[in-house]
Amino acid sequence: MSAYARTFAGDRRARARGGIAAAVVCVAVGYALLLGLAVRHGVPTDDPLAVFEIAPEPPPPKQRSIPPPRRSRRPEGAAAPPNLRAKPTEIVAPKVELILPPPLPVVVTAPVAGPGAEASAGASDRPGPGTGAGGIGTGFGGGGDGDGDGGGWRDETPPELIRGRLRDSDYPRGLGDEGISGTVGVRYLVWSDGRVRTCRVTRSSGSDVLDRLTCRLIQERFRFRPSRDGLGRAVPAEIVESHSWIVEEESEEQ
């Protein structure tokens, strides 16, 4: 065998060994890849981790802006003072005109019944024994210059207030705080004993409380010297007047 033949045979054996070695390496690499990629199932635990979704936090509520209160453009009125004052008007009692019936005529009777016939008992223009007042007879009738017991007439006098008035403290506190005032016109009857019997409102103040209070205080407090007629007798009389309830406003100091 020549030298060339020996060299070629050696090369084939070397290539065969290299191919086998390469095949072994490929098999080892493939097995290693299979082991590395294999999924290993672990032993399940008694308390696995629960998985749940956490919702995002809701956005905070929108804050509403509250506008500041508006100030009224109207000026505020001054407060009523604590010392409320009731100012009644002057009591001027009108002159009461009393219409009295005329006095009854005085009838003079004869002390004894006149005897005789009808013609001799009546009044006649001829002198005779009758009891009538004749022109010249002796009858019982009073002449023109008689001395009767009747008295003369005097002037009537109106009622006169002797006690009672409306005071500052009579003003209702609640009405004073609200600034309620007014004038009350009244008409009341003064009896012969000087007390006020009836009272009615002829002109309202606009407040029913003030109207009723005025009449009630007049009946409770007022006492009069009663009115008297021409003969000096105490008689009832009516009085018409008005009373003003006023709330005084205090001026602001500058």
Any overview of this molecule?
By secondary structure, this protein is of the alpha+beta class. The termini are far apart. The chain has a domain at 85-92 and 156-246: TolA/TonB C-terminal domain. The strands form three sheets. It has a four-stranded antiparallel beta sheet, with helices on one face. It has a two-stranded antiparallel ribbon with strand order 2-5. It has helices at 3-37, 118-121, 173-177, 208-221; strands at 85-88, 160-163, 182-190, 196-203, 223-225, 227-228, 234-235, 237-246.
CATH topology of the domain at 85-92 and 156-246: TolA/TonB C-terminal domain
Tell me, what's the shape? rod-shaped
Mean pLDDT over the full residue set: 70
Question: Which residues sit in consecutive blocks of at least 5 with pLDDT less than 50?
Answer: 79-94, 116-124, 131-137, 139-146
What's the order of the H and E elements?
HEHEHEEHEEEE
| Count of distinct strands | 8
CATH homologous superfamily annotation of the domain at 85-92 and 156-246: TonB
Biased composition (Gly residues): 129-151
Pfam families: TonB_C
Subcellular location: Membrane
GO cellular component, one term: membrane
